[in-house]
Amino acid sequence: MTSVSALEAFASGNAVRAQDYLGSHAETRDGTAGYVFRVWAPHATAVAVMGDFNDWDQASHPMKLIGDGVWEGFVPGLKRYDSYKYAVTARDGRILAKSDPYAFHAETRPGTASKIYDLGDYQWGDQGWMAARKANPIYQNPLNIYEIHLGSWRRTGEDTFLSYRDIAQYLVPYVKEMGFTHVELLPVSEHPLDASWGYQCTGYFAATSRFGTPDDFMYLVDQLHRAGIGVILDWVPAHFPKDAFGLYEFDGEPCYEYADPRKGEHADWGTRVFDYSRYEVRSFLFSSALFWLEQYHIDGLRVDAVASMLYLDYGRQGGEWCPNMFGGHENLEAVDFLQALNTHIFTAHPDVMMIAEESTAWPRVSHPVGQGGLEGGLGFNLKWNMGWMNDIIHYMKLDPYFRQFNHRDITFSLMYAFSENFVLPLSHDEVVHMKGSFINKMPGTDDEKFPGVRAFYTYMLTHPGKKLLFMGAEFGQFNEWHYEHSLDWHLLKQERHKKLQKFFKSANQFYLANPELWQLDFSWEGFQWICADDNQGNCAAFLRKDKKGQFLLVVCNFSPVHRKGYQVGVPFPGRYELVFNTDDESFGGTGLGDKEPLKTEYIACHGQEQSISIDLPPMSAVIYKCVKKFPPRRKKAELQPAAEPKKAVKRTAKTTTRTRSTKTDAKDKDTPAKPKAAAKKPAAKKPAKPS
Predict the structure, then answer these.
(1) Cα–Cα distance between 531 and 516 in angstroms, integer?
(2) In degrees rounded to 5, what are phi and psi of residue 224?
């Protein structure tokens, strides 16, 4: 693409790889090697490049305006890792020191300068993964995500960061062994404040230097891919921080953000909102999204805070926001931006994931764009199910006695489970700010919490939808997550935590091995309620099915009561075998539950003609599989012996001669019908009451 066409595409909002033109790039001019710099600063009266190479002189390397607010300058003799910034002169005369919005590398905080870095040298070895990804869309495949904050998953003995390459050494075998299919990384785009966890970023094209170089991050992704593990990245197009060196009023005035503070400010977060109506901003964000997918082989982006983008009144009181052209509170420009973003992404890479973290009931978030506008889908292909997450966490925190009055918390999600392509998240947001860790949400003593974790995680794995779990839950970390410290890996020296980790490993492997749990996640064809209304028992039972009609029977008991002889209806007569039991002794359970396969009884239950009587351990989830089907029971009429055929009757001349069938003609007065003996009705069995 020529400079003219690249500039036109950027200025018209159609650039999707603007970083190839803007930013710093190696170039030779008049036989002299150096770097060309281009930056968008539409309100500036002057721009210059300053850095280590000129002792941060604000005037020695001026740039010239080449059109549409873009400035260009060439500096000879530069090399990789040289630090630089732009000296931007505002219309009011201030000179601002700004980092490069398109830089590929940056100083490690507290430094804020950009660094020269050429991409393209890394030799990838994940060709097999990329080919398999293209051939296996995620919709009918397992997706079990392990959510990670790289700065606190594991640290050195001195409690300092590991490098990307060191993280790969520990993370890759661990995730593989634990049976997760993907990792999701909290934002790795450069950010100044550790406490923001990466969600207030300043470098939309720069992998954070906290853990190493861009090539080091590529190595981490590459190693995960080679091990068969996908990588999802959190990405934040909703807002950015007000750090003076960043995007904030880049040329002295609102530039990347809305000028109207009623649209351009998130006061609660202390951030600015991107101006989705501005073509250059759209080009910037389109390009950033594709950059991570293409340059770093990322398999999907989880788009943060989508709700804050969609609503003009998000986090604002009356009088603090302005309605759209129709008088509504929808941000029409953000809707159009998201639809265009997803169209660009899936046109280029139909095999990736675009996951919306959207916390409201906005319709058709994970539906195709279609006709566009408010009537069309937003174009994501997955959406976090925040409603399910809130309900299940509310339920699990209750004392079991009070769960009977809140039974809808575990059943209501099926009212809308197939309206979107959902991911069920138990995420980082639920284990911070005094919310407690996953295991500490459970009521009771410490020993009573462990079976609760096992039961609820199994319920999550068997509920329709893809899955996500935040790090630390898999071995029962008691402390809340602290971004500034490592997870409490020392807990694995205790037997109960080691057994809980074994449970998570086994549960994940069971999930992977059974397509009934993931092949039809987004359709009623993959789910059937057996019992949704046993609120007094805190129990629920349902089927999960695959495309061939094979099914698993899941029974959850969220009470501390052992239910011996619990009757559960099943769809077919046969022999049912317990194939997964959260109360297994190897997981730290009591060892209760059925040890031998169960034969169905012709006891009607839960709307089924036959049922099984199971040993349901306290605070557990059990899964059964029909290992042998029996022929269906014959109906009453089928059980009656067939009458012997009658001989032909010779008629007189007044009648015709005909052969009688086994049925007697009631109208024939010469041979009246004889009453048949009634078949003996078998005595009905009474269903066993649950203990």
Answers:
(1) 18
(2) -65, -45
The type of residue at 473 is: A
CB 590 within 8 A of CB 422: no
Q: Which is it for the CA torsion 129, 130, 132, 136, positive or negative?
A: positive
Q: pLDDT (tens digit, 9 = 90+) per residue, 102-135?
A: 999 999 999 999 999 999 999 999 999 999 999 9
CA distance 660 to 453: 71
- The type of residue at 562 is H
| CA 294 – CA 551 distance, rounded (Å) | 39
pLDDT tens sequence across 175-192: 999 999 999 999 999 999
Rg of the chain (C-alpha set): 32
Average predicted confidence (pLDDT) for the chain:
92
The beta strands (E) that lie in 291-350 are given as: 300-303
Backbone φ/ψ region at 55: left (φ over 0), alpha (ψ -120 to 50), beta: left
Q: How far apart are CA 457 and CA 475, in angstroms?
A: 12
CA distance 595 to 577: 8
- Residues above pLDDT 70, as percent of the chain: 91
- Residue 495: C-alpha distances to residues 443, 450, 490, 491, 638 (Å): 21, 12, 11, 9, 58
CA–CA distances in Å: residue 366 to residues 42, 306, 347, 561: 36, 12, 16, 40
Burial of 651 (0-12, 13-18, 19+ CB in 10 A): exposed
Residue-by-residue DSSP string for 524-581:
GGGEEEEE---TTTTEEEEEEE-TTS-EEEEEEE-SS--EEEEEEEESS-EEEEEEEE
Per DSSP, the three-state class of 80 is: coil
Q: Do the beta carbons of residue 306 and residue 365 sit within 8 Å? A: yes
pLDDT digits (tens, 9 = 90+) for 613-622: 999 999 999 9
**CA–centroid distance for 439 within its chain:** 21
Which of 69, 88, 81, 55 has the alpha carbon at shortest distance from 22? Answer: 69
Q: In what order do the strands lie in the sheet with 239-241?
A: 239-241, 271-273, 265-266
> Could you tell me the pLDDT band of residue 416, with boundaries at 50, 70 and 90?
very high
Helix (H) or strand (E) holding 1: none
Q: Are strands 620-629 and 551-557 parallel, antiparallel or unpaired?
A: antiparallel
Q: Cβ neighbours of residue 647 under 8 Å, at least 6 residues apart?
A: 660
Cα-flanking dihedrals φ and ψ of residue 580, to 5°? -155, 135
Residue 676 C-alpha from the chain's centroid: 65
Task: List the catalytic residues.
Answer: 304, 357
Edge-to-edge, what's the strand order for the sheet holding 574-581?
A: 527-531, 539-545, 551-557, 620-629, 574-581, 598-599
| Residue 147 main-chain phi, psi, to 5 deg | -85, 130
Distances (CA, A) of 477 to 187, 449, 526: 23, 12, 33
pTM of the model: 0.90
